[in-house]
Design goal:
The protein has five helices and five strands, in the order H-E-E-H-E-H-H-E-E-H. The chain is an alpha+beta fold.
Length: 140
């Protein structure tokens, strides 16, 4: 990401973090005199910032409706796991699913919630390891 663009993204992130209001104004303009002022939720603006950041990094981005029904292959791709591993998660009850004929289907919202919880557990484990590391450094 270009340095100038990155500094704008950092400034936007700071603004979003310091914002008390749930709504913000966004100004969109072109090279001419055309300009549109829109009021959007701070949550929508946060998602937009994350989307722009991923695009600038060259990371592929896919938008999935929460109510969308996914195949096991699609769900596995979202989670970054193999399809057989995802099937094991489904069969173990980690993610709800239903069958259409002999094919398993999962709700995107359930896959995204599993991903969010997995990420949170990972962060919590990293914090715990960091605390243990600091504790060991103090004892030595």
């Amino acid at each position: 990401m270009k340095t100038r663009q990155k500094s704008k993204m950092v400034a936007l992130e700071r603004l979003l973090e310091s914002q008390d209001s749930s709504r913000m104004q966004v100004i969109v303009s072109n090279d001419g005199d055309d300009k549109v002022v829109m009021e959007v939720s701070s949550h929508a603006l946060q998602l937009f910032r994350e989307l722009l950041e991923k695009i600038e990094e060259g990371t592929g981005v896919e938008i999935v409706r929460q109510d969308q029904e996914l195949t096991t292959s699609e769900a596995a791709e979202i989670l970054g796991v193999s399809r057989p591993y995802l099937v094991d998660l489904l069969e173990d009850g980690e993610i709800p699913f239903h069958k259409v004929g002999s094919h398993r289907r999962v709700q995107a919202s359930d896959v995204l919630e599993f991903k969010r919880l997995r990420r949170q557990r990972s962060r919590d484990a990293m914090k715990e390891l960091a605390q243990e590391d600091r504790k060991l450094d103090v004892e030595q």
